[in-house]
């Protein structure tokens, strides 16, 4: 079997966990007693688990500036020119299940509040 070229191809396809798990799984005596499909399923499971863990780590590593954001907290002040019915429709997230795209244009984010000067 041509193990090295196969490992290089796995790395080229960005299947690093699969490439590193494959030699360790084949060196144990018990995998030889397992069917090929079962061994392959274990390798795929290892790759999938590593990707899911990396995705979750990436999400948890992001820092949100506004941690208390919610739909009810949106300011519909006249100068913001927000369409309240449109915001309500977007809040249902139906656009996600219908595979639609939402593009937000204009200024976004938290409105700046005037700074209060401390009293002397």
Keywords for this entry:
single chain, mainly alpha, 6 helices, about 55% helix, about 120 residues
Q: Please indicate the percent range of residues in DSSP E strands (runs of 2 or more).
A: under 5%
Radius of gyration: 26 Å
**Could you describe the largest sheet, including whether it forms a barrel?**
none
Percent helix range: 40-55%
Form type: elongated
Mean pLDDT: 78
Number of strands: 0
What string gives the helices and strands in order? HHHHHH
Low-confidence stretches: none
End-to-end distance: 82 Å
Output the number of helix runs.
6
Q: Which structural class is indicated by helix and strand composition? A: mainly alpha
Describe the overall structure.
By secondary structure, this protein is mostly helical. The protein has helices at residues 3-12, 16-27, 29-33, 36-61, 84-91, 94-97.
Question: Could you outline the blueprint of secondary structure elements for this entry?
Answer:
Layout: H1 3-12, H2 16-27, H3 29-33, H4 36-61, H5 84-91, H6 94-97
Helix pairs in contact: 1-2, 2-4
What's this entry about, in short?
The protein has helices spanning 3-12, 16-27, 29-33, 36-61, 84-91, 94-97.
